[in-house]
Amino acid sequence: MAKTNASPAQNTVANNDVKTDLGITFKNVKTQSVNIGGTDFYYRKLGDNNAGVPVIFLNHLGATMDNCDPRIMDGIASEHQIICFDNRGVGATKGKTPKTIAEMAKDARAFIHALGYEKVDLVGFSMGGFISQEILLQEPQLVRKAVITGTGPAGGEGIKNVTKITYTDILRGLFSFKDAKTYLFFNRNENGKKSAKEFLARLKERIENRDKKMSFSNLQRQLKAIHAWALQTPQDLSVIKQPVLVANGDNDRMVQSSNTHELSKRIPNSELIIYKDAGHGGMYQYHEAFVKSALAFLAK
């Protein structure tokens, strides 16, 4: 597959990289920026600079950096440096969100190169898992290992319904005075409701210097990108040679769990984890188990 090269016209890091101080966690780590071709991309970096290959976290639909689970970020940062960021048009990063997953991946690659990394690990959730697949196909030499959760392949079963499900659950959230992620990410049984409440509470731990909210117009552009991904011709994932950990809940109503099994079959060097009694946000419901599995996988 032909590789495309990201060559931003201007790359300047706004803050000097320093080893993370003791006591710094995801709820209080500073926000930094790097200029890529005239656009400031905002990011947060947590963990020891000298902890080997850095981990890039690729987030879900509509998510800013404040939607990263602090338990997962802190957990992975205990052994690795982990970086989350606002891609183009998301949160504090200005511009229009691309209308294709491939373009989002090109922006993510430009961000990685702007930070000076030649090799990274990826952790991608939901739409971030789509982007992770594209990065693996566009520039395979950039990635050592990948963890993709709550996600599916291009053209995957039921992914075309994400827009409808998202709008429906946004309305459910408005009428019930609940965050839409309560419905999108978790089962509506006692375990799911409890996990949703705990997860949403964790997202509020950061009090100061919170990220800017994403605009509705850019959310719509993300949904168009996901819909295009759903209708896309299936890609040849057999060319992915890196180790890939694929995980999901057993009852994902956003990106059907069957897609997780399909990814595991089509990616040669893959491992599969299915969390019982969990939905799209299985990694959040079972965050302790997920961190343990992710660290073990990355350490192999």
Characterize the structure shown.
This protein is an alpha/beta fold and 300 residues long. It has a single domain, classed as Alpha/Beta hydrolase fold, catalytic domain (Rossmann fold). 36% of the residues lie in helices and 17% in strands. It has helices spanning 70-77, 101-114, 127-138, 162-176, 181-185, 190-202, 216-231, 258-266, 282-285, 287-299; strands at 11-13, 31-36, 39-46, 55-58, 82-85, 120-125, 143-149, 244-249, 270-275. A nine-stranded mixed β-sheet has the order 1-2-3-5-4-6-7-8-9, sandwiched between helices. Helix 3 links the parallel strand 6 and strand 7 (143-149). Helix 2 (101-114) packs across helix 3. The longest helix is centred in the last third of the chain and has 16 residues, at 216-231. The chain starts with 10 loop residues before the first strand and ends with a helix. InterPro entries: AB_hydrolase (IPR050471), AB_hydrolase_1 (IPR000073), AB_hydrolase_fold (IPR029058). It holds the Pfam family Abhydrolase_1.
- The chain-level mean pLDDT equals 92
Largest sheet: 9 strands, mixed
Number of strands: 9
What is the radius of gyration?
A: 18 Å
Q: Describe the strand arrangement of the main beta sheet, using strand numbers.
A: 1-2-3-5-4-6-7-8-9
Secondary structure topology:
Elements: E1 11-13, E2 31-36, E3 39-46, E4 55-58, H1 70-77, E5 82-85, H2 101-114, E6 120-125, H3 127-138, E7 143-149, H4 162-176, H5 181-185, H6 190-202, H7 216-231, E8 244-249, H8 258-266, E9 270-275, H9 282-285, H10 287-299
Parallel strand pairs: 4-5, 4-6, 6-7, 7-8, 8-9
Antiparallel strand pairs: 1-2, 2-3, 3-5
Organism: Pseudobacter ginsenosidimutans
Pfam families: Abhydrolase_1
InterPro entries: AB_hydrolase, AB_hydrolase_1, AB_hydrolase_fold
